[in-house]
């Protein structure tokens, strides 16, 4: 922890005087589908306002005082957990997106944050941002933790601490009519046009594959689009051959396209931590801020109590379950291999 921490109240005061553009990005703040705690108990409606992306379920959690006592005093005393979500501009179902009421953040990531906050006896307050500004919020202290499909990497550990909660698997998406498949060999990408989210872990892996292929005398094209909807339109129109993204998002897009003129398919998968390690998605905090251990304890409490499994099942993510939450487990190596 820093020897001269920034007081929590002034950081929030700065947020109050933020620009109108920032205020708009926070329009989806608040607990949304989380009922107010009653006698140390919170009920979260998982999958609320999800437009069919989840099987809605009510999950009840109780405050665990032993875990709550481990929280940094300023967070415990505030009664709130400021949660960063990187769902701007268009969201990414089923992970994180604005619900059918056009204001509440829903998705697997916000819902897990609600459950964890319930264990900690805190009210979650969501701060929606672009992917880049998600990390700016953590760096500045405006948000306490990011729950936003963030991959544990060794590079990120230079600035952040991680409490893992889900497997990180990437997937290639193509049109069903495209015979191309990916079996883990980067040479399969030669001559292809692919898209990926800018600044993401999967972009880093794709760029490493491109560098290897170029060293072998071949290449492929990477094209960028402002959001997932634009990338899907590019795939439909043939502007790109394939899209690389988180497996839950790709599977969602495949299912949504099933009865359309341009049905999609999953064309291959890859670990988010490279060829030699299973990738992990993790709650992400500023390094040494004292929050990561109670977060991991809260997640492990949910795993032991069965609420974690209910959450995964509601969002159809059972295949991505982990046996336990770990603090700073091995992540994507610095060389992306």
Describe what you observe in this structure:
- It contains 11 helices and 13 strands.
- It is an alpha/beta fold.
- The strands form 4 sheets. Strands 8, 9, 10, 11, 12 and 13 form a 6-stranded mixed beta sheet that branches.
- A hairpin with a 6-residue loop joins strand 4 and strand 5.
- Helix 5 packs across helix 10 and helix 5 (108-120) packs antiparallel against helix 11.
- The chain is globular.
- The two termini are 31 Å apart.
Summary, kept brief:
With 337 residues, this protein is an alpha/beta fold. The protein folds into 2 domains: 37-167 and 280-320, Periplasmic binding protein-like II (D-Maltodextrin-Binding Protein, domain 2, 3-Layer(aba) Sandwich); 169-271, Periplasmic binding protein-like II (D-Maltodextrin-Binding Protein, domain 2, 3-Layer(aba) Sandwich), CATH 3.40.190.10.
List the helices and strands and how they pair.
Blueprint: H1 8-16, H2 20-25, E1 41-46, E2 57-62, H3 65-68, H4 73-78, E3 80-85, E4 97-98, E5 105-106, H5 108-120, E6 123-128, H6 131-140, E7 145-146, E8 160-175, E9 193-196, H7 201-215, E10 221-223, H8 228-237, E11 242-246, H9 247-256, E12 264-271, E13 279-286, H10 292-305, H11 307-314
Parallel strand pairs: 3-6, 3-7, 9-10, 9-11
Antiparallel strand pairs: 1-2, 4-5, 8-11, 8-12, 8-13
Helix pairs in contact: 5-10, 5-11
Radius of gyration: 20 Å
CATH class of the largest domain: Alpha Beta
Helix content: 25-40%
Q: Structural class, please?
A: alpha/beta
N-to-C series of helices and strands: HHEEHHEEEHEHEEEHEHEHEEHH
Number of DSSP strands?
Answer: 13
Can you name the CATH architecture of the largest domain? Answer: 3-Layer(aba) Sandwich
Please work out how many helical segments DSSP would assign. Answer: 11
InterPro entries: Solute-binding_3/MltF_N
Domain Solute-binding protein family 3/N-terminal: 80-319
Keywords: Signal
Signal peptide: 1-23
């Amino acid at each position: 922890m820093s020897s001269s921490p920034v007081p929590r109240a002034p950081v929030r005061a700065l947020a109050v005087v933020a620009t109108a553009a920032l205020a708009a990005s926070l329009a989806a703040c608040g607990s949304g589908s989380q009922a107010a705690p009653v006698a140390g108990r919170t009920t979260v409606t998982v999958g609320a306002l999800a437009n069919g992306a989840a099987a809605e379920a009510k999950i009840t959690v109780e405050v665990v005082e032993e875990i709550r006592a481990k929280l940094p005093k300023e967070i415990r005393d505030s009664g709130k957990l400021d949660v960063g979500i990187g769902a701007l501009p268009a969201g990414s179902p089923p992970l994180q997106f604005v619900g059918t009421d056009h204001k509440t953040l829903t998705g697997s990531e916000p819902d897990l944050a609600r459950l964890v906050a319930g264990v900690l006896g805190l009210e979650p307050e969501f701060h929606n941002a672009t992917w880049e500004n998600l990390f700016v919020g953590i760096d500045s202290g405006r948000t306490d933790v990011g729950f936003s499909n963030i991959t544990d990497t060794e590079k990120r550990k230079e600035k952040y601490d991680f409490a893992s909660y889900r497997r990180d698997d990437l997937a290639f998406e193509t049109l069903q009519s495209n015979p191309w498949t990916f079996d883990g060999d980067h040479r399969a990408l030669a001559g292809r046009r692919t898209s990926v989210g800018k600044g993401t872990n999967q972009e880093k892996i794709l760029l490493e594959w491109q560098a290897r292929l170029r060293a072998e005398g071949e290449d492929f094209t990477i094209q960028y689009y402002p959001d997932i909807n634009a990338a899907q339109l590019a795939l439909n129109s043939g502007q790109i051959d394939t899209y690389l993204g988180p497996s839950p998002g790709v599977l969602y897009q495949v299912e949504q396209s099933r009865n359309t003129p341009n049905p999609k398919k999953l064309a291959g998968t890859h670990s988010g931590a490279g060829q030699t390690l299973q990738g992990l998605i993790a709650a992400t905090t500023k390094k040494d801020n004292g929050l990561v251990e109670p977060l991991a304890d809260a997640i492990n409490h949910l795993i032991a109590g069965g609420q974690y499994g209910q959450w995964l099942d509601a969002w159809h993510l059972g295949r991505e379950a982990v046996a336990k939450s770990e603090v700073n487990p091995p992540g994507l190596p610095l060389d992306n291999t």
